[in-house]
## 1
Amino acid sequence: MTLSIPPELISTSEEMLTLRNQQLPNVTESEMIQAVRTLLIGLGENPDREGLKDTPKRVVKALQFLTKGYHESLDELLNGAVFTEDANEMVLVRDIDIFSSCEHHILPIIGRAHVAYIPNGKVIGLSKIARICEMYARRLQVQERLTLQIADALQGLLQPRGVAVVIEATHMCMVMRGVQKPGAWTVTSAMRGVFSEDSRTRQEFMNLVQHNPKF
Ligand SMILES: Nc1nc2c(ncn2[C@@H]2O[C@H](COP(=O)(O)OP(=O)(O)OP(=O)(O)O)[C@@H](O)[C@H]2O)c(=O)[nH]1
Ligand SMILES: [Zn+2]
């Protein structure tokens, strides 16, 4: 089948990059490395000592990996894996590991996403649900926006009867610094279609994703 991806979804990452490039000067990798070096000096370290010699380069590489979602698009990750199927029961992929970075402190957000939808003539390759989570997680985020972006992507791609996304996560900026509450979990949800209109459908989903601490 031909896959019709709404243009606003295809262009999400490109739009962001264009916007950034329009407003900000180009920065070379060596300038980024230099910036980390400056940071180390500011922290009272000697960036030339053996253990730190390659650290600025490593930090830049690590940050580029953690934000690689800016350079990905739904179109590429889907690879056409949307199929016509006469299925109309809930599909749930739960316990999708999430490693994101909070946009306020650039510290890790670690958690799990549970993503469900009720098809309406189209299904998506299961791994692609995890890949969609991954693309949006690998950006600077707030948990609320990450949750909405995943829901909106599925809604736009499949026009299903409903989409439900729950993310439960711990924020290292609330654990290792600041308020220092390692036991606090943040739970966010986005409900679309029948999940928002029908409390029984929503309840069925919530029962299936009951918090199940593993770590
Ligand atoms: N809503 C929301 N807030 C977040 C998220 N990640 C981090 N934050 C919050 O962003 C806020 C930034 O608040 P500020 O007072 O500007 O920063 P801060 O002084 O570092 O705040 P503290 O963490 O309270 O020390 C904090 O309350 C963080 O907990 C997120 O995903 N969603
Ligand atoms: Zn933070």
## 2
Amino acid sequence: MAETRRWELAAHRRLEKGKVVGVVVLDGWGEAAPDTFNCIHVADTPTLDALKKGGPERWRVIKAHGTAVGLPTDDDMGNSEVGHNALGAGQIYAQGAKLVDMALASGKIYEGEGFKYIQQSFENGTLHLIGLLSDGGVHSRIDQLQLLLKGASEHGAKRIRVHILTDGRDVLDGSSVKFVELIENDLAKLRDKGVDARIASGGGRMYVTMDRYENDWQVVKRGWDAQVLGEAPHKFQNALEAVKKLREDPKANDQYLPPFVIVDERGRPIGPIMDGDAVVTFNFRADRMVMLAKALEYESFDKFDRVRFPKIRYAGMLQYDGELKLPSHFLVAPPEIERTSGEYLARNGIRTYACSETVKFGHVTFFWNGNRSGYFHPNLEKYEEIPSDIGIPFNEQPKMKAVEIAKKTRDAILSRKFDQVRVNIANGDMVGHTGDIEATIVGCKAADEAVKIVLDAIEQVGGIFVVTADHGNAEDMVKRDKSGKPLRDKDGNVQPLTSHTLNPVPIAIGGPGLQPGVRFRSDLPSAGLANVAATVMNLHGFEAPDHYEPTLIEVVDK
Ligand SMILES: O=C(O)[C@H](O)COP(=O)(O)O
Ligand SMILES: [Mn+2]
Ligand SMILES: [Mn+2]
């Protein structure tokens, strides 16, 4: 069926071609009731407030979590990968989390090429499992790791080493202890069955291993030293003691725990990665595993000194980059996100500029284009990255590069060299993840200022804007009870919510180029992020392909 589809898009019956369309994605910017823990509400955000007044015809909310973005259930919060995939692809795909669930439930994971490949190391080598240890469901899920541990041992793994990355970002800070206990319990059961299974190393996800978009290779190096070389500044006899001890530092935070290795009575690391071993990175999400995948797989590599490059059999939980075919072995085939709006528009001559700062750059390029790196049409596209701050938590620089991104985008708009400009403004999300309420308020204000710069430029060229978000975060910064009341400890302190939320996100359209009769339809109350691509195509003057989720807009006579 897909092969017979044409790439050429039909002209829209009512909407003209030739307007510059500015698509702004506010990362981590959900819609929620006014509240002191709603940083978007508390912050001074005149631009977004004005857009909201355009509802219901030019402002509304759309779903950004759960099944609306291809996640297993409606209890799953949205995230950048699935959010930008849906925004760019215009279609809802079963995402990595769900595909892994299905492969584990059916047992097919053990019959695939990837598992058969690593299995060859089980006789004489160790199986290493590296990944994020939590039930956040954004990059990985602990229940999938538990099933994989059991399944791998039943399929011949005799010696297993788990290299954990503590979370505190997609889940509450401090929850690392309970997740380590859970896995230690499972490993003890495996040991009872004669499998030599232990946690071998660990560290906080933002400080060890899980950098993204090559922002800071030192993060990956710290992980490499612990996981592969068995070297780290902290040494403990077991992981529970490690996490508990490291958390005694008053400034400790699961996201940033320093690297540690587990050692035996004689102080020797119990699980460095050696020649002949098998390695699985058990995150299903790509962005924060690609860098490690390169270090594990590429013979030639110059990002840091690996000291030792063990000859291993390596598989990702998924293939993380479809264009680079990385890693070349994987346990579960990733969703085949095809016929994205980026590809359609490039093939129909639309000139596109995409911009963000490093920590979100791949969101408006790689994720937007269906986890595909590179351009569709280099002559028509320009992707520009503004370097992010390195090595500081974002609550220390909450304005991030919002204004710089907006100014570059303004220049791109005013150059009139592009038909679409697409940006991601990171503050609501990146500062929201720190749990620092004051800083998040500052970040939201900066994001609003950046939006104004882009909208002013759109105004100058007679263009159209679409302002939306990929999922919630900054609009709710506190852990709540079932009735929605903030939970307080005995001293009256609230527990900051560092994660994303289940809230819907706003979408606003406008600009001088928007024809007077264009408004949001009222017959799609459950629409979600995947409905945005068809909307944007319409605003470029094209009908959307019929396999896309329906457009959010209609044109009425005025
Ligand atoms: O990777 C992260 O920073 C978080 O786990 C999820 O945030 P994102 O989906 O907004 O990137
Ligand atoms: Mn995001
Ligand atoms: Mn986030």
